[in-house]
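Page 37, continued from 36.
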């Protein structure tokens, strides 16, 4: 029960922050312990607002695989893209990793361009 309580507290905290504050935490690589950060971001932002920030995080090899998978899951959801799994976009050991990221960047760019008219 302790984890659930911590997750609820984290979620309330993140939901109380602005999307700009969540982006600042991304740059600081502070995501909490329970996954509530990613849930809050996923439910409260749009591709237009957070797409580039998430894509930039995915492209950083210094970010651990678990964090990249979480970011990829949010980005794929926001882009309504089902071409890859979050894990496939986080696995920098895979020979196709770089080409997947390039293609994802193209997809995100095209969807954002469409949204902007």
């Amino acid at each position: 029960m302790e984890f659930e309580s911590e997750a609820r507290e984290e979620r309330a905290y993140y939901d109380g922050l602005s999307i700009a504050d969540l982006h600042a935490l991304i740059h600081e690589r502070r995501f909490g312990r329970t996954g509530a950060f990613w849930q809050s971001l996923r439910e409260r932002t749009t591709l237009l607002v957070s797409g580039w920030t998430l894509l930039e995080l995915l492209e950083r090899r210094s970010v651990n695989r678990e964090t990249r998978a979480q970011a990829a899951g949010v980005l794929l959801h926001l882009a309504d893209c089902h071409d890859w799994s979050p894990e496939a976009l986080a696995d920098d050991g895979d020979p196709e990793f770089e080409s997947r990221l390039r293609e994802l960047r193209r997809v995100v760019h095209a969807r954002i361009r469409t949204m902007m008219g």
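The CA atoms of residues 79 and 108 lie 6 Å apart. Flag for discussion at group meeting. The longest helix spans residues 97-115.
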